[in-house]
Amino acid sequence: MLAWNDHERTRLRPLPTTCVSMPTFEEKLSFFKQQIVERIARAIDSETPVSLYEPIKYTMQGGGKRLRPVLLLLTVEALGGDVQAAMPAAVAVELLHNFTLVHDDIMDNDATRRGRATVHEKWDTSVALLAGDGLVALAYQTLLSTQSPHTLRISRLFTTALIDLCKGQALDREFETRDDVSMDEYLDMISKKTARLLSLCAQMGAILANGTEDQVQALKVYGESLGMAFQIQDDLLDITADPEKLGKDFGSDIRQKKKTFLLVHALRQASPKQKQQLMDYLDREAIDDAEVIRIRDLFEDIGTLSEAKAAVQRYIKIAEDSLTPIEKVHASTDSLKDLLRLVQQRQA
Amino acid sequence: MLAWNDHERTRLRPLPTTCVSMPTFEEKLSFFKQQIVERIARAIDSETPVSLYEPIKYTMQGGGKRLRPVLLLLTVEALGGDVQAAMPAAVAVELLHNFTLVHDDIMDNDATRRGRATVHEKWDTSVALLAGDGLVALAYQTLLSTQSPHTLRISRLFTTALIDLCKGQALDREFETRDDVSMDEYLDMISKKTARLLSLCAQMGAILANGTEDQVQALKVYGESLGMAFQIQDDLLDITADPEKLGKDFGSDIRQKKKTFLLVHALRQASPKQKQQLMDYLDREAIDDAEVIRIRDLFEDIGTLSEAKAAVQRYIKIAEDSLTPIEKVHASTDSLKDLLRLVQQRQA
User: Which of B49, B141, B174 sits opposite A170 (nearest CB)?
Assistant: First the structure.
């Protein structure tokens, strides 16, 4: 049995498929996660300037699911590619993701993230701003160190995704002051802000594994649908999850009047009376816990919560179906399906 | 005579060296600048999201010397390379430079830049933050569109330069709260914050022109020395230039207690009495115009202004000397020397 925490041995025999007994999905996840965490540490391994690297390390040591790099590595593995050779791309995506978190937290004025003070809260806005910039730079440095004939291609895709992330964030903020956001506009926004990075991971993984164009395309759809499901699930968790597990305030989306799936759906489907009640809450300066619960009850009555859950299922189904053509050639999409279950069932 | 403002003709006959009569250096500069401005407009040509692209366009239409892309194109030309093929790299550097300006203005809380309101002043911090992020993304998009066997190499250099820019900015901010900054620390900071981008331009230009490694190295030294001269000149202009021409407040570095060449030198060379006077000014909450003038007089007495001017000359000399090995092979370093004069003599 391979010792998962034995760094030297895992470096020599990195692929879980080389184990004597097949690892479970959970073992594989934890193995990938550990390797990613090690590689991240190497990518940000500088001491000075202290005001740049300290907040970067703080951010990257904040834990998190490492969903994006794990997805990338699982995709490579599914197509029989070299998981170790894809590690820089996986780390780059995680650095880029954390850049968006640090800068978004400044814009949203969020005080906590993953149960800890956000960077701008612990230091100040300038430090957080610069730490985010540094993370983008380190992400590109790591990505461009990829040894592959596809490095230029994945770097171009990575950049297009970064532009979409910026567009998604801009739309998200524009929507905050609008009450007429349509479901299509909302879906376009989250496809850029959340799903884009996940589809990038699946695409890059397929390309690095020398997948065919059909496989790259199929896995892009898989990543995108997974991302859409993930974000709608996230919107739901804002008012249904245990805040302690979530690591952020209960109902923080509602308090910021974020146009989530829930609010967009509710504002469109509410009766005139229900809509008036919702608008009354949204007009307030501050919304307290009891009011968040009353808004949740309104969402329940309007049918918003069940519709959100149904939307998550629909996207999970699209993701699952996108794997069918790949299964004909390869038999190793099990982990990608397991990942869908994980996203579907997550509680925080 | 080639019509410099005739886009179609210039696109067909892009190199000033193909003119019937040789263009003057000024004509060449204005020709390059015009082409760069056109290419920038194409690189940022999107309408939505409005909150992302409007501030990006505002920033890029703010004028400026376009020194960095011009330097890159002059380097390509000096080595007989294809100027048009280097255009994306030139535009990328200008986009990256403007990203640093937008984010630095947030950190420094500067209200004006090039005689206009800064982005965070005209909109707000979040808009400026995101516009800066978008500029980095668009810079990479443009850079990675370069059609050259060297695209990957220049992208790696570009990224190392971006990391250095972040480090330089972090040091600059760390120095604000320190009174014991040495001249070596100051020079290291500006080599990262200012000179690095100029050396990148010269390096990228030489690489794209298929220069030898010796030429790439020589031009890197040229760009770096030009950059050092440029920054020390900039420090001087803060208290010697006409504020209207400068487009920013008179003595704004002093008011922010920035560790410029002047302040670092003066604090080290002042007599105990002069140092006390300087510290008294620096301890104040706000410094008015009359006090800035008194600090300038102190700099004069300490010998700081003449030492700064001498330092500019020394770096210009290093830059000039670095061109000698290139002249043996090519005879077209005249423009690179003209550029040194321009930096040396600039008034704003």
Answer: B49
Interface test with A, best of B166, B181, B186 (most A CBs within 10 A): B166
Smallest Cβ–Cβ distance between A130 and the set B137, B151, B170 belongs to: B170
Question: Measuring CA to CA, how many Å separate A322 from each of A199, A257, B17?
Answer: 12, 34, 56
CA dihedral over A224, A226, A231, A235, signed as positive or negative: positive
Encoding tokens for residue A95? 């650095």
- Distance separating alpha carbons of residues A144 and A139, to the nearest angstrom: 9
CA distance A51 to chain B (A): 6
Q: Tell me, yes or no, whether A188 lies in a domain.
A: yes
Nearest Cβ partner for A138 among B107, B133, B163: B163
CA-only gyration radius of chain A, Å: 21
Kindly give the confidence (pLDDT) of every residue in chain B, 348 residues in length, as a single tens digit, with 9 standing for 90 and above. 233 333 333 343 444 454 457 789 999 999 999 999 999 999 999 999 999 999 999 999 998 899 999 999 999 999 999 999 999 999 999 999 999 999 999 999 989 998 899 999 999 999 999 999 999 999 999 999 999 999 999 999 999 999 999 999 999 999 999 989 999 999 999 999 999 999 999 999 999 999 999 999 999 999 999 999 999 999 999 999 876 776 667 888 998 889 999 999 999 999 999 999 999 998 888 899 899 999 999 999 999 999 999 999 999 999 999 999 888 776 689 999 999 999 999 887
> Which residue in B106, B141, B156 is closest to A159 by CB distance?
B141
Given CB atoms, is A156 within the 8 Å cutoff of chain B? yes
**Could you give the CA distance from residue B128 to residue B219 in angstroms, rounded to a whole number?**
34
Note the residue count of chain B: 348
B:239-268 residues touching chain A, CB 8 A cutoff: none
Residue B282 sits in a domain of what CATH number? 1.10.600.10
Verify whether the Cβ–Cβ distance B136 to A132 is below 8 Å.
no
Residue B29, in any domain of the structure: no
**What is the DSSP secondary-structure string of B154-218?**
HHHHHHHHHHHHHHHHHHHHHHHT-S---HHHHHHHHIIIIIHHHHHHHHHHHHHTT--HHHHHH
Please answer yes or no on whether A49 and B133 come within 8 Å at the CB atom: no
Residues pairing with B117 in the sheet: B112
| Residue in chain B lying closest to A165 (CA) | B134
Check: CB of residue A135 under 8 Å from CB of residue A59: yes
Model pTM score: 0.93
Instruction: Name the amino acid, one letter, at B203.
Output: Q
Q: Which residues of B touch A137 (CB under 8 A)?
A: 159, 162-163, 165-166
Q: Which residues of A touch B174 (CB under 8 A)?
A: 49-51
Residues B50-80 as b/e (b if ≥16 CB within 10 A, e otherwise) read ebbbbbbbbbbebebebbbbbbbbbbbbbbe
Owning domain of residue A320: 21-345
Paired sense of beta strands A116-117 and A112-113, if any: antiparallel
Q: Does residue B2 lie within any of the structural domains?
A: no
Q: Is A155 on the interface with B (CB under 8 A)?
A: yes
User: Which position has the token pair 């050639």?
Assistant: A329
Residues of B in contact with A103 (CB under 8 A): 129-130, 133
Q: Which residues pair with B116 in a beta bridge?
A: B113
**Chain B residue with Cα closest to A107:** B126
* Within a domain: B247: yes
CA dist B110 → A239, B107, B127, B158, B205 (Å)? 40, 8, 15, 27, 32
Q: Is A136 on the interface with B (CB under 8 A)?
A: yes
Q: Are the beta carbons of A132 and B133 separated by less than 8 Å?
A: yes
- A309/B343 Cα distance (integer angstroms): 63
